[in-house]
Design goal:
It contains four helices and six strands, in the order βαββαβββαα. It is α+β, with helices and mostly antiparallel strands. It has a six-stranded antiparallel beta sheet with strand order 2-3-1-4-5-6. Strand 4 (85-92) and strand 5 form a beta hairpin. It starts with 5 loop residues before the first strand and ends in a 7-residue tail after the last helix.
Amino acid sequence: MGEHPILEGTLQFPSLESLEEQITKLQRAGYLNTDEQWVEDNGKTNPVSGDYEAIDREELVIRLPEGCYRNLNRGLSGLADSATAGGIVGTIRCQRIGIIATADDGQVSVDLEQWGLSRGWDSPPSIEDEQYIPEKRDEWFRAVGKKFVDTHRAALRGEYAASDEPITV
């Protein structure tokens, strides 16, 4: 059984050769098809609208639209280590863990319960409570996970543009 992370981001690479190497790895692993479209864990291409391009060879960029990519989190540090700017943010383990992989700082995992509590969120519904409803606990983690991604999405975009300040969790 694998992880089903929900991820998104943008990474810029130092050369066309480095970019092509990463594209080949992603295609071999089944994340990009031969048309260079992202394939989600359900086997379908990620339905991104507009003139979105996953690969930009002029800018030396790989763009990962928000989606569920089975086990891609396991290769993020290698992908980010090869990049010169940008990053990927997302959640894993039913949105219990936040992850950030950046060109500068590698991959970091964050306990989303602690992250939410440290930012003033009420505690998630406790399993110990007589009135415990699993869906309410899941809703809490979805809300905190969304806030985590929204917060870091903006920082990662700034890092892609500036590439001089580390991302802080």
